[in-house]
Each structure stands twice: as structure tokens, then as C-alpha cells.
Amino acid sequence: MKVRGRVWLGLWLLLFLAVAIAIVARQRAALATAAELNRLRERRLTLEAKQAEFEGRIREASSRKVLVPKAEARLGLRLPSDSRNTNLTLPATPADSGS
Predict the structure, then answer these.
(1) What does the domain layout of the chain look like in residue ranges?
(2) Cα–Cα distance measured from residue 39 to residue 46, given in angstroms and rounded to the nearest whole number
(3) What is the pLDDT of residue 97?
């Protein structure tokens, strides 16, 4: 049995249709992935901004201008005058011989 021209044309059209469907499906998947990537980038930028804000708040809360008044009020501590500060020095130690 010999395959006629119309059958070949139909097979080629089916092959073309299958390839076209595969290409469209792949492009849809790529667009969905690109949209997800953009969403994740925006989320990362938002989280980095929040992190910078929190780090700034931590730096401010641990600064002397905030901690000293709290230590004085809650714990009764006070800053010593400069004459009451004592600098301690450690005796010099010989350098390791590399052993």
C-alpha cells in the first residue's frame, strides 16, 4: 500500500501543529517563570529595605544617647568622670615562635 500525497500533507500538518503547540507551551512556561522571578525580586528588595530599617533601629537603640539615660534611670548607674577612668595595659608577650 502506497501512501498518497494527501496523507503526507496531513502528517506534515499534524507534525507542524504538534511543534507549534510545544513552542507555545514552552513560551507560556517561560512567561510564568519570568513573572515569578519579577515577583521574587520585588519581595527581595522589600525585605532588604526592612532589614536596613531594622539595622538602623538597632544601631539607634544601642547608641550611648539612648542607653546612658536608660541605665541611669532604671539601674541607677552613672558615667564616671574622666579622672575616674583607669586604663589598664597588658604586659607585652613574646611573639610566638611559630611552633
Answers:
(1) 5-78
(2) 11
(3) 56
